[in-house]
Amino acid sequence: MKILIIAPYFAPSSEVPSVRMVSFSNYLYQEGFDVTVMCWAEDKLLTIYNKSELNTKIPDGINIITFDSKVRVLPFLDDLRFGRELTSKLDSVLSKNDFQIVFVTCGPYFSLQALPKIKKKYQIPYVLDFRDLGALNYRPRLGTELKIHKSAFYKRIIKAWYFRKIKNRERRAVLNANGVICISKIDLDIMKEEYKLSPHNSIIATNGFDENKLINIYPIKNNNTLVGAIFGKFMYYSEKRALSLLKAIDMLNEKNANIKLVHIGRKNKYIIETIKKNNINEECYECVGLKEYSEGMKILGSADFFMLEDTSPDDVGTKIYDYIYWNKPIIAAIPKDIPLAKLVKSFQNGFVCETDQEILNALRKIQIENLKVLDNNFDKTKFSRKYQNMKMKDLLEKVYTEDFMRDTN
Asked: How far is residue 374's CA from residue 325's CA, in Å, rounded to a whole number?
């Protein structure tokens, strides 16, 4: 099958949106698909990342078509403009190729603009992959440049106008889609309720650890120091919860515990400033920067336990799957009623903490009892990207077969 994947974030980017599609495209190629990816050009990625952060290799056998999207006005206006530009670019690509199906990962969500028109013109089925809810989790960026509209009244008008635009854009794209994928049951239920989706071609495909990139990855043994690790964003979802993790480490270190937190992710001056402002010993925290997945996982596997802070009401995130791969204790500073909490608590040594004291108690338990594993009894393969990629591939084949049967009848 000849497939076109539209994924603005793709290699060489090494962040979560890219990781999901790099893994999926590689899986499809290994399964015999002819795979082409439309993605942002490196010049565009360099407006988002540093050169050193663009370190993911494009999988062998994947054809690449790049496009650029230059920010010129305001984020919300650019989003609408990007949709028009991609529509024109996609029209040109499809007129010269014989793709049999299109797969679109969201976000960003501007690609939704192109799909109904393209389907009508070329009669090509498409599948939507919602990594997060889009218009149904409306959080607009108006941009700091919007200084002429300082009043809350005008901002409300602009937000309402923009919401109607993106909601209509998303509704048309979803209702014309041949398949829809969501990252969690909560997200899929919301989509079904809002857009009256049929369960026939609607599935859940979570993230997972990428076992193909973990062959011959051996962590380095730590000596003396008890190391906790975070892979991805830190002090992003909740400053208070992130600080609680660092305060617990700092408090135990004052009693000669010798613990530190290693952060594998983007270096952020804000984190260091917050640490200083709260009088936490800077030696409690070490950031090694963004790393390519395999390299990041090697560093992660060298830790003794893992920490995370999140507040998502509908998803379990992505880093949890990499922690599960290494099967080491997890301390999660998260609300106790979110899906991530339910998953963490399902493991023997998964600690869900909402107070400073609970975090401190979990750290002490790991240290004193010398806990080494997250759980001795679970099927790790169900948390892999391969397992999820297989579900997405099966949906593509189902959609293609149904479309083919309609054409022949």
From this structure: 10
